[in-house]
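call fold(seq) -> tokens
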Amino acid sequence: MSAKPTKAPRQPMPEQPPQERVRNFDEVPLGYSPEQAVTEAGRCLQCKKPSCVAGCPVAVDIPGFVGLVGEGQFDAAVRKVKDTNVLPAVCGRVCPQEDQCEAVCVLGKKGDPVAVGRLERFVADWERERGRMATPEVAPATSKKVAIVGSGPAGLTCAAELAKLGHDVTIFEALHELGGVLVYGIPEFRLPKRILKVEVGALRDLGVKLETSAVIGKLDTIEELMRDEGFDAVFVGTGAGLPTFMGIPGENLLGVYSANEFLTRSNLMRAYEFGASDTPIARGKRVMVVGGGNVAMDSARTALRLGADRAILAYRRSREEMPARTEEVHHAEEEGVEFHLLTVPLELRGDDKGWVCSALMQRMELGEPDDSGRRRPVPIEGSEYVEPIDVAIIAIGAGANPLISSTTPDLAVNRRGYIVVDEETGATSIPGVYAGGDIVTGSATVILAMGAGRTAAAAIHKHLMGQKPELPGS
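ret:
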């Protein structure tokens, strides 16, 4: 490892210029060169008690892999990352490192933290681009069968960890492509699908069976998987993909989308591939997105790339309360997204053909904090105005799809429909059935879902190898 850290500044990530990238769906950040990666890695202090590892939900040996990058040992570095993270190219692109590993980096106390996410992306890209994808060692077969329901980050991680332990693993995905929210929810310019396919495909090399268009709850129930199909355990990682609307007049007008539908049409069904796809999508000229999270940013930036003259982002709080990543907000602003802060639609209005044509808006001010700890938005009387629009996208969150819970009577869920689990193991109220990711927590981050998948895999392994099943509260 590097004996003495350098005093170089944090290395900036090269990017497509805003005026160019807003006209294409190519990836925005271009990645580090080897020289930039080595320089950035050389900034690491190699702390004896690295808090960055504790800040990572999947416990990547960050000083270890960063030190190897600093020595130019890129192949060894990616193998180090893959000891605990099966999706490094994905995490290096979409994880909020600024709130996790980088947030507790010692260098960040007086300056800029080590760019852990950018280095993770670099080593994953280095391996893939050179065709040197290393397959982890797989333990001898145990003859135990595990079903993974859902192929999002939680399901993929759980599957990989169990396969490495020698179990016979099958992933059941309801959609026609694998990846869950990674494939339907995140745009091409943030996470190219070709990169995701490589990382998902690596599971095949571990022996994982992949079944698409397999809707568990319709095709088979959880009970039938265990009773009739011979699975010894089941992990449920179905995510939180149920669209949420505001409940205001006009949301049933033509041209009004949930963010889930809008992004699924563009990403998974490739409406962005002009001329090459028949997927219909309303390409409005005046698009309003309601919300302030990463999904809202993705929707507004996608609308611009689909040809919108204006993309308005209406958010009922101030910029400081926005849950979106700082980088995503910055990119959206650079590309021309208009931020209408402290503003909320009261009603969507339509024309004589049933298409949305305007929104009645109201300005807000911030009052006392609410249950989330953020200051509550309070309407300003007499501040209403009309905003002309021709597409509205509602990006205010998503809920739990009730398909699994409605077909699994003994599965405990909370009042919002999310599965109740033991936080230490992911065990549900049914012996042998585990769950993790957004179907447990509600919409959260990719890396937190991966951490839940990894935790559940360890518990499932213990259960399969003869230890007493863990139950919530036991």
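The chain has 17 helices and 16 strands.
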